Amino acid sequence: MQLVITADTHVPKRARDLPPQLWAAIDAADVVLHAGDWVDVSLLDALAARARRLVAVHGNNDGPELRARLPEVARVELDGLRVAVVHETGPKTRREERCAARFPDRDLLVFGHSHIPWDSVAAPGGLRLLNPGSPTDRRAQPYPTWLSARVVAGRLDQVELHRLPPR
């Protein structure tokens, strides 16, 4: 099962659209995970129309229309992998500990908000935390980014951070 993981797209405020490389990956993916901060419902509609399956949440920059359609937290099982998606996890200090306590029954937590790519594992339970960064608003990062991964028999595999050309 091929995953595309993105967040903090901020369309159309930070970009007119998603980068073509990301759209191509979305078209090829089995599941797209979006960790919030869409900004406008038109991107949600476009992504929902193109993605085979979309698992998404709203973020702090999303207004009432997006909040009415998207949860704050999404929980799904993908080929045996127990996944949660949320926008905010709080400060980076003690993030793993907080998230492991909040999501003890999950194998993977996808989050956004910071626009900073993140990949760590919370001990002792092994919760994997992934933040794809942002494909449209890199802030202080050298590149806009997004993630891809595979799920094989309930395990996360081949996690790859994709760097886009700086805008």
TrEMBL record:
Its cofactor is a divalent metal cation. It comes from the Bacteria. Keywords: Metal-binding. It is an enzyme of class 3 (hydrolase). Gene3D superfamilies: 3.60.21.10. Its EC number is 3.1.4.-. PANTHER family: VACUOLAR SORTING PROTEIN VPS29. Belongs to the metallophosphoesterase superfamily. YfcE family. This is Phosphoesterase.
